[in-house]
């Protein structure tokens, strides 16, 4: 268990702490081979050095970002930014419990864009694997 991620939410409200704890548990369960760490100040899970999912606290609650989420088939995510990321926001623990995490995380395994090398490729984002063909 990553103690830095556990400590991330220690000063949040009880509701936000419960959401963060739930997310950490779910992400660790469905991404057991992922490396998790605090990256740019927020908890992020990586597969082979590529960021796939993370969360952060906003004024109105917790935001979960899936770096390749715009390529997912399971509904419920909103596009975020100019690349392929999508997000979901929540302020209540009950909402966090009701979302299709297992489906989204399965898609995060299968459908990835190569964010790890985006700087080296000068902003060009390429798909990883054969799912896009």
Order of helices and strands: HHEEEEEEHHEE
CATH class: Alpha Beta
Relative strand content: 25-35%
Radius of gyration over C-alpha positions, nearest whole angstrom: 14 Å
The coarse silhouette is: globular
Do you know the CATH topology? Answer: Aspartate Aminotransferase, domain 1
The main sheet orders its strands as 1-2-3-4-6-5
Query: What value does the average pLDDT take?
Result: 94
Strand tally, please?
8
Structural category is alpha+beta
Quickly give the CATH architecture.
Alpha-Beta Complex
> In which range does the helix fraction lie?
25-40%
Tally the helices.
4
Distance between the termini: 36 Å
What can be said about the biggest beta sheet? 6 strands, antiparallel
Low-confidence regions: none
Number of domains: 1
Secondary structure: elements and pairs:
Elements: H1 3-8, H2 14-30, E1 35-39, E2 42-47, E3 50-58, E4 61-66, E5 78-79, E6 86-90, H3 93-98, H4 101-110, E7 112-113, E8 127-128
Antiparallel strand pairs: 1-2, 2-3, 3-4, 4-6, 5-6, 7-8
């Amino acid at each position: 268990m990553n103690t830095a991620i556990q400590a991330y939410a220690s000063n949040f409200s009880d509701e936000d702490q419960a959401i963060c704890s739930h997310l950490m548990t779910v992400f660790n369960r469905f991404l057991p081979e992922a490396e998790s760490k605090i990256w740019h100040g927020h908890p992020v899970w990586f597969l082979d050095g590529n960021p796939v999912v993370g969360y952060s606290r906003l004024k109105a609650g917790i935001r979960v970002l899936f770096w390749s989420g715009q390529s997912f088939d399971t509904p419920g995510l909103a596009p975020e930014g100019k690349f392929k990321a999508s997000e979901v926001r929540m302020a209540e623990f009950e909402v966090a419990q009701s979302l299709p995490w297992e489906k989204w995380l399965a898609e995060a395994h299968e459908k990835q864009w190569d964010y790890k090398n985006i700087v080296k490729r000068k902003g060009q984002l390429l798909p990883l694997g054969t799912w896009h063909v």
